[in-house]
Write a structure and sequence with these properties.
The chain is α/β, with parallel strands linked by helices and about 230 residues long. About 50% of the residues lie in helices and about 25% in strands.
Length: about 230
Amino acid sequence: MDVKSIFHCMSDAIQLMFDRISSRYDFLNRFLSLRRDVAWRRRACRMAGPANRILDLCGGTGDFLLSHRRLWGSAKTDVVGDFSRGMLQIAKAKSPGIHLVQLDALKIPLGSASMDLTLCGFGMRNLDHLDQGLSEVSRVLVKDGCFVVLEFFRPTNLWTRFFYGVLGALLIPIAGAIFSGRREAYEYLVRSVRRFVSVEEFSQQAKNAGFHTDAMIALDGGIAHLVVLRKET
């Protein structure tokens, strides 16, 4: 299926950056996380449970939705939405049957209460306006719909501050430069984590958007977090 384009206005520079690293994105995710990203997605999908209508928002190459499919089978409606056409082309090659939409996560081109489950893997910190993004997810979900987020939040303990301030800040850009030729993209990754909200702040902003936090789980000492939200209103 061809990639549909319904794109409005997010950072052109960030969009271009993801287009440029799309061919090496999956490999570097596995390499940099020592394949922990696979386990994180699997755990998140187990907690999400089955659903009839699923949106994989900021879905990149479709890994989150494909992980859910392997666990629970295909949904009646499943959509991978991302602002990077390059990422979506990789998703198309991996699973030709997936519905792909190039979109702005701040203006999701879906009807209100049209999705039962939204997944988002490591994409919320790339939004220009987090509050608006959360409100859009709330809008497209049915009441009691589930929003499952995997994310790198701003570090708050000694281990994660050391990892993102010293270890990751040194090694992640070097690996990105070697394997993708795009050091700046992986320097951006580290910067985006350090300037993002903490997981507690994210939970509060989600509450303001009409969500209840069902679970907030630190993964591998807090390098990443799994957050399960439920739409209340």
